[in-house]
Amino acid sequence: MKLLTHNMLTSKCMKGVTVGYPLKINAFDVKVSEVDFNPEFVSRIIPKLDWNVLYNAAESIGQVEDMPKSIVDDYENNTDFLKKVHRVLLEVEVINGELVCPETGRKFPISNGIPNMLLNEDEV
Amino acid sequence: MPSNDQVARSVALEQAYVYDVYEQFLEKPNSGPWPRVQQFIEELEPGSLVCDVGCGSGKYLSLNSSIFNMGGERSRRLGDIARDKDNEVMILDNLALPFRDESLDAVLSIAVVHHFTTTERRIRALRELARVMRIGGRIIISVWAMEQSHRKFESQDVLVPWHRPQHLSTPSLELTSTTNTSEDDFLPPYHAYTQSDSDSNKSERAKLILNKKRSKSRHKGRSIDPGRSSSPSSSSLSSPNETCYSFVRRAIQKLAGARRSVQRPWFLDSWTACTKEPSPSRYDATKCDCCDCEDVQNLPIELRRIDDEDIITARRQTFPSSQLISELSANFKSRSLTDMKTVENNNIVRSKSIVPSGSQTLQQEESACRDSKEENKSQSKVSLMKPRLVKQKKSICDEDAEEALDEPTDMKNMVRNMPDFKILHYNSHCRGVFKQRSLNEEIMSAERIKEKENVKRNIQKQTSLNEELIFQRHRKLDSLKDSLFSVSTSKRLQLIKTGFTNKFKTSTGIEKVTSSSFKNGFVKIFQNWKSTELVSPTIPENETVTTPTLTTSNNIDDKKDSSVTTTSERRHSKEDNSDSSKDSSLQSDTSVDSEDSFASVIFIPKTDPTSPTPLSPGPVSPRLNTSVPNSPRIKQSSCPTSPRIKQMPLTVYPLTKQLSSPKSGFGSSKSDSDSSNGTTTNLLSRDQLKADIQTKETKEIVVASKKTPLSQKYSVPPIPKFKKTSLNTKTSPEKPPTNNQIQVPSNNRDERLKSIRELLKQKPGFGVRSSRSNYPIVRHSSVTNGNFRSLARPLPKLLSLELFNPETDDKDSDSSAVSSPDSIESVVENKNKSPTVGTRFPFSPTKIINKPVIKPKETKDNAKTTDTASSMGLIEAAANVANSLDNAVNKVIKSSPRSRRRQIRSGDILSVIQGNFEMRRTVQQIEDRSAGKLDPIWAEDCRRHLTDFADKLSEKLLQEIHQYQHISDEKQLLLGFPSNENLHDPYINRLSEELDDLSKLSAEIQKQNEYLAKLTASDSLYSSQCVKCKFGKCSCDNGDTDHGENVDVPKTNVNADIIRNSVKNPIVSTKQSKSENVSEDPVKNTDKVVDETDGANTKTLTKNYLKKGASIESYESEKESSSNSITSSVTTSVHFELGESGDSSDRGSKETNSSTSRYSDEGSTLSLVSCHDWKTYNKNSNSNSDSCDKQFFSSDKIEQVHEKKNISKDQSMSNTSQESLPSDNIGGAITFHRYYHVFKEGELDQLIERHVQNLHIISSYYDHASWCIVAEKVQVWTI
C-alpha cells in the first residue's frame, strides 16, 4: 500500500464511523521501491492530498526523511520537493501491517501490500 | 429495502456465484482491455486519482502511467494477481468503498455492477461509486447486456457457466512468471472474462484474441459448445502447464472447502428463504444445475426473480405440472390450485383431442348439452364406433352385438333427449356446487320416488335404459375411448365393489347359510357373468370400456339380486361378484364396500327375507339375456322394503353432510365417511334430478337415456374417473339402502351414479367454477373412506408434489384408520378401497387420458376375468388388454400404477372374498372348494394380467421416467436448486424406500409371472369351465364341478395347503423380509392358489407385485434421476442416491415383509388381520401410489423426479455444487457459474438517472456485449 492510497482511505463506511480518517498505520514491513518520477503527476496530485495526513503517515512509518511538514509554495517548479513527495507517495509501500480505524480501532490488515478494506456484514 | 433475509440471500448468492467463483476464476490471459475503456483511461488528465473498482487481474491499472490507478477488487486472489503486476491494489467492496468522499478523479466499474443480485444493491454500488468521485469526475460503467448476439437470455438473472480453462491454458507463461507465491498464485492471470484484460495483456494480445475470448464467453451462455471448445482451445493455445491437473485439484479442493463451509449453507438457506418469502429483488437462484457440466456448462442458468418465484411458490404445484405438461404430453397445463378441476377438464379434453374420437366426443358432449344436433353427430360417430363394438361383441356374442346395434339407435334418441338434461345440469353445476347440492337434495327425494316408481312400473324399461345407457356409453366411449374407459372402468369397478361389498356384508351377516349361499352365489355369479357377457358384448361393440361398466353394473345388480333372493345365495353371489369385481376393480369395491357395509349390514336381514332362492335361477336366464331386467326385478322386490325409508333418511343426512362436507372441504375422515354416504345420496340426487328432468319427456327411458348421455358427456373427461370412483363409492353406500328398494334402483343408481360422475366430470369441464365445486363434492363422495382422502390427496399432489405427497401419505393412513371404525369387512374393504381410490384419483386427474385407457383395460380385464370370465372373456380380455396395453403404452406408465392398484384392489377383494369363503369353508368344504376354484381362476387371471401389466407398466414407466428425468433435468435447470433442496429430504427418503420396495416387488412379480404362466393353463381350463357354466345357465354346478375337476388337485392340495399356508405364511412373512423369501412365498401362494388363503396370499402377492412394479418404477426413476444427476456431473449425488436407494430398498423390503407377514396372518384371521394388513398395504400402496402418482402424474412425476434429482443434486450440491462439478470434471475444465444480472437496453441508464442523481450520463453505448456508460459527477443542489 502506497501512502498515496492511504491518503484516500477511510473507514467511514463502517457503522458508527463518521469520518474514519485518517487511518492509523501500523507498519510491520515497509518497502521502498524505485518508481519512475513523473513531476507532472506529482504536482497534480499534491493539491488532492491531505498533506498533514500524508506527513503523519510517513512519519508514523519513519519514511518522512526530509520532506517538509507543509507544502512548499510553488511546488510545481520545485523538483526536489516533488521528488521527495514522489518518494513518499509512490515509492514507500507498506507491505505488511495494518490500518486502524481512528474511531473504532478496527484494524484492516495489510498483506502483500494489499490492504483488505472489506467489512463484515455487521459492520456496514 | 429488502429484508435482512433478502440481503442475506443476495449476499450469499453473490458470495457463492460471484466472489467464490472469482476466487477460483482463472482469467484467460488473452483478454485485453476494451478499447473504449482504454480510451477512457488514456483521456484522463495526468495526476488523476482513479480507482478501478473490480479490477480483477488489473488489466486496466497500468494503461496510463500519468494517473494513479488503484485497483479495487473483491477477490483476494485477483487482487494478488493484479498486485503482482506492480499495481496498487486493495481489497474492497463496491458497496463500501474505503475512500473519502469526492477523493477520486475517475472510477472504473467494468463488469461489476451486473454481479449484484438485487436492484437495490446495484443502486448502492452505483451511488458508492459516485460518492468517492469528485465533482466533475468521470466514471465508466459497463454491465453485461441482455441483448447479446451470441447468447440469448430469457431471464435477466442468470448463472453463467464459466469453464475454468484447463490448467494448461490458464497459466499463461506471463502469469506463471509473475505469480508464484501461493498455489493460487500459480493460477495465472485471472481473467474475469469480460472484465479484465490486464495491462499485461494489453500490448501483446490483439483485439482478435479479445474477440475470441468474448465470443467464447458469450458462447458459454447458451451456444455452449463453441464456448467450451473455444475455452479449451484458448487454454491450449495459451500455454499448456504440467501442473494443470494438480492445479485444478488444488483449486477444487479450495473451492470445495470454502463453499462447503460457507457458501452452501448460505445458499441453501437463502434459497429456501427466497422461495418462501416473495420479494421483488429476490432471485430464485434456481441453481444452475452445475451438475450437467458438460451439457449445461455452456448454458447459462437463469435465475428467476423473486416475483416469479412468488408466483411459482403460490403455484408450485401447478408449476411443475405445467412444465411437465408442456414437456411430457402437453396434457397438463399449469394449474392453479383453484383451477384444478378446470385443468383436469382441459387435460381431459386434451386427452380427448389426442384421440380423435375423444375430441369429437368432447365436442359432442358440449354440443349435446346445448344442441341436439351435435348429439346426432355423436350418434353418427357412435354408429361409426358401433361397428367396432359389434366386432367385439361378435367375438363375445353375436346376439349381444345385434342387440347392441339395435340399442344404439335407442341410445341416439336418448341422447337427443339428454341434451336438455345436460344443459340443466351443467347450468346448475356451473352456477355453484351449493346449488347443485340443493337441487340434488330436492331432486334426490323426488327422483328417488320417481325412480322407484319407474322401476316398479317398467323393469323392462330399465333394462332397456340400461342398454341404452350402455350404448350411449359405448358411443361416447367410442368417441371418448380414453375418458370413457377410465370412467367406465371406474364405474364398473365401483359397481363391482359395491356389489361385492354388499355381498360380503350380506355374507358376513348370513354366515349360517354359507353352503346354500355359496351355491346360489355361484349360480348368481354365473348368471351375472352371463348377463355381463350379454352386456359386455354390447359394450364391446360400442366400446370395450362400456362393456366393463355394463358388466360391473350387471354384476352389481346381480349381486344385489342374489342378495335379495336369498341371503345365502346373495352372499355367495355377492361374494362371487365381489370376487369378480374385486378382480376387476378392487379399489372401487373397497370404497363402495365401506359405505355398503353400513347399508348392507342393515339391509341384509331384509334382503334375506325378500330374496327368495328361486330368484337366482330365474333371474339368471333373464340376466343372461339382459342383466338389466334382472336387476329391476330385484329392485322391485327390494323397493317395497323399508330401504326407501332408510334411503330417505340417509339421503337427508347425506345432504346435510354433503352440505357440510363441501364447506369443510376435505373434512375429517370421519365426517368424510358420513359425507360419503351423503355424497352418494347427493350423487343419487343429482342423478335423480337428471332423471326428473328426463321424466318430463319419458321418465324411465328418458332418464336412462339422459343419464347415459350425461355419462357420455362426462365420460369424455378422464378426470371424471376420480369423480366416478367417488360416485361409485357413493352408489355403493346407496345401494345397501337401495337394496330394499330393489336392484333396479341400484341399476338406476348405478347409472345415475355414472351419470353423476359424468356430470361431475362434465361440470368441471364445462365450467371451471363448477369444477371447483365439483371437486369438493367428489371429495365428499370419496370421503366415504379412502376416496375422500384420495381425492384430497391427488389434488394436493397435483398442486404441490412435495407437500402433498406427505399429506397423501398421512391421509392414506388416516383413511385406513377411519375405515377401521366401520365393520371389519367394511373396514378392510375401505382400507383397500381408500388406498386404491386415492391412487386412482391422483392418477386420473393428472393423467387422465392415459390412465383412463389403462383403467378401462384393466377393468375390462378384470371384468372379463371375473364376469364372463372367464370363459370367453379371458381370451378376449387378454386380447383387449394387450390392445389396450399397446394403445396405452405411452400412457401405461401413468396408468400402470392405477392398474396395479386396481389389480391390487382386485387382489384385496379376492382376498376378502377368500376370507369369506374360508369362513364358509369351515361350514362347507366342498362349496369352499368350488369357491376356491373360482377364486384361483380369478387369481390366476388377475395375476396374469397383473404381471403383464406390471411388466408393461414397468417398461413404460422406465421410459417415462427417463423422459421425466430429462424433463426434470431441464426443469431443475430452470427452476433452480433451492426449491429442490428444500424438498429433497422427505422425498428422497420416500423415493428410496419406494425404489427398494419396487425392486423387491419386481423380483416377486417375476416369480408371480412364472406362476401365472403356469396358472394360465389352468385359467384356460377355468375359462372353459366358466364358459360352460355360462352357457349352461344352471352350469354353475357344472362349472363348479368342472372347476373342481380341473382344480381338484389344487383344491386337495389347497385344503392342506391352506392350513400349511396359514402356518407357513407367517413363517414366510418372516422370511419374506428377504427378497428370496418373498419369491418363495409367491410360489407357495401360487401353489395354494386354490385355497382362499392362497388366494389372499396371491392377492397379497399381486399387491406386492404391483407394489414392486411401482417400486421398480420408482427405482428406475430414481436410478434415472441418479443417472441424470450423474450426467449432471454430480457423482456424489449418485452415491447418495444409491445409498438412499439401498436404504429405501431395505425399508421397502421391510415394509413388504411386514405386509406379507400381515397377509399371511390374514389367512388365519382374515378379516381383522386383513384389515391391519390392508392398512399396512394401504400405507405401502400409498407410498407406492405416491411414488406411482409421482411418476404417473406427469407434473407430479416430473416434480417428483425433479425433487428426487434435486435432492440428489442437492445432496451433491450440499457438498458444494460447484465443487462437485469440479470433482466430476477432474482433470478437465471446471465449470463455474457466475451470477449475472444482464441489463436490458437502457436499464443501466434508468438506474443511474433515477437513483444516482449526481451522475450525469455523458455517453451510453453497447460494446463487447455490454452496456457501457460514461458519466460525470455533477453537483446536485438540494434546496
Automatic annotation (TrEMBL), chain A:
Pfam families: Trm112p
SUPFAM superfamilies listed in its UniProt record: Trm112p-like (SSF158997)
GO biological process: rRNA (guanine-N7)-methylation; tRNA methylation
GO terms assigned for molecular function: protein heterodimerization activity
Principal location: cytoplasm
Record InterPro entries: Trm112, Trm112-like
Localization (cell): Cytoplasm, Perinuclear region; Nucleus, Nucleoplasm
Alphabetic keyword roster: Cytoplasm, Nucleus
Superkingdom: Eukaryota
GO CC entries: nucleoplasm; perinuclear region of cytoplasm
Family, similarity comment: Belongs to the TRM112 family.
Protein name in the entry: Multifunctional methyltransferase subunit TRM112-like protein
Organism field: Agrilus planipennis
Gene of this entry: LOC108744205
UniProtKB/TrEMBL annotation, chain B:
Coiled-coil segments on the chain, per record: 988-1018
A GO BP annotation: tRNA wobble uridine modification
Composition bias type Basic residues, residue spans: 210-221
Biased composition (Basic and acidic residues): 367-378, 556-582, 1081-1091
Cross-referenced CDD domains: AdoMet_MTases
Gene Ontology MF: a single term: tRNA binding
Matches recorded under Pfam families: Methyltransf_11
GO cellular component: cytoplasm; nucleus
Biased composition (Pro residues): 611-620
Superkingdom assignment: Eukaryota
Protein name, per record: Uncharacterized protein LOC108742374
Native source species: Agrilus planipennis
Gene name linked to the record: LOC108742374
